[in-house]
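Input record (one chain):
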Amino acid sequence: MRKKHWTVTPLFFIFGVVMLFMAIASHSYNQILCYIEMGISIISLAVVAVLLLRFRSYVSYVVRSIADKINGIDSSFLEKYKYPIAIVGTKGDILWCNVRFRKQMSNAKNPEGDNISAYLSGFDFENFVVGEGIDIAHDGKEYTVYCTNTENGYICHFIDNTYYKAMVREYNTSLPCVALITFDNVDDFSNSSDEDFSQATLSVETYLQKWANLYNALYKKISTNRYMIIFRETDVEKMVALKFPILKEIHEIAIRQNTATISVGLCRGAKTLKESELSARKALEMALGRGGDQVAIIKNNSYDFFGGTAAASEKLSKVRMRVIANAISRAVADCDKVLLMGHRFSDLDCVGAAIGMQCIMEKSFKRYSRIVIDKENSMAQQLITYAENRLDNNIFISVEDAIKNITPKTLLIILDTHLKTSLESAQIYEKCKRVIVIDHHRKAVNYIDNALVFCHEPSASSSSEMCSEIISCLDDASIGYVQADALLAGIMLDTKNFVIKTGVRTFEAAAYLRKKGANTLTVKEMFSDSIETYKEKVDIVCKANIYKNCAFSVASQKGEGIRLAAAQAADEMLSLQGVDASFVLFEGEGRINISARSYGRINVQIIMEKLGGGGHQTMAAAQLYDITMELAYQKLMSVIDEVLDDVSA
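The corresponding structure, as predicted from the sequence alone:
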């Protein structure tokens, strides 16, 4: 029975009464009209009587049948429930309710005939009756509503648990949130005078203490450059809304040419202090792996990031690389074969690093070693051809052949990526039980977490630079000019010919490779293009538009060479006046690809991450599926507006 029965019945009653008065009034001058009106009035009143009797019978039957379901008690006892209760029909209309329901839910008004959805805070009745109960708020109170199904209707119980929900909120907002903070570039100040080091350290500690005092939090200094602050959950929500202004405040600490930065690992949602502290360590490791100068928040094994606009400071010490080289030596000594693999659409850095490491594995460690690569889709075709023409044996192998050669003791070395989703072959990774990762890209969430050795240096210019340092710590007598050229080509690609992300260690690695026979003219030839690729690159650059110091272009061409042309066009657009970042969109393999480049003033990694991609501060990419080029362009523009507005705020 629906509410319309309740609304139609009064109309019939009013109509019948009116007709009755009209019949009486017309009796004196027209008896026939009087009898007609009298008949209509009687019929209307009869309809009202029948509807009322049927509805009361229906309500009585439903209430009585529902009462019988409750251990056979009489229906009069339903009124004695100590909380609001309503009996509804199969369509959700309220048939009966107790006094408490009238007082608490309908403001003492008669709710019969209303649909129960009006009292469920917008929840749909059909979904409600099949659920396990819903939480609603009504007139300043909170209820959990449960529905009991019967043959002819439903019983809705409104349990007032305002007090308990308030207690739960108070508990959740007061949960301890451990924040571990590290002074990222303390070494930059320690290499200066003692006075500068003391001043910088004292300034950082002062800012952190003020930050803790602002939220009445516990502050403790753990070591020279590491601190701990314990906040409350409700305070962390305020910081998230403000996007952690502490990062910019620390930037104000500038002594000589050095600007201070901090990294923060913060845990939310942990039930105990120990659990919160352990998760905060993971978050801090993630923040440092992404280059520092940011806040990484972990909650339920998912991450949120804030900041990350400053470039990662270069680590001058090579001690860590010597330790990693020794760890790699132990891992290789315990394997029978070595496979080296990079990311899909491998570039000069990926292939160059692999060529250098393959030589060490095969000639210095005397292990069978091959580079897994998809030659047809590689963007390092010239380097591959160069190596094949000058080396005695074929060091490259296809994915299919590599899978056939995998044994239980095969070691897989992954280069220039640390993401499971971007590997040349995920199947090879899954089959190999022993994995080593060497990468320089900023750390992403879905990183490879089962590596025997995880060599990750976001401050390094390239994977080739990292491999050059590792090789120099091993028996490098086998390295020849071919491997040196390959490694130097990788460094030159990622540094834009020693322009960006070039530190002291970058030039030391280049000098080491020059000593090993690298020829800059030979390497330069590996960057030469075919006339078709050059035309495509020029066409993309000519179509570029500039917005907020960012150059945008959409490639109209399709084909095998468009990926290389788009990447080179993105590099070329950086040379335009007033351009700090460049973005090229192109279609390929049923998706929209975006190639992003910058000189470091704009962090393109953050922009690409918001689009589901990733990369480095100066070189990143993303792929968008099931979307048109126009929508992809608009989405990119909105993300750039969001990121740049946050940076300027």
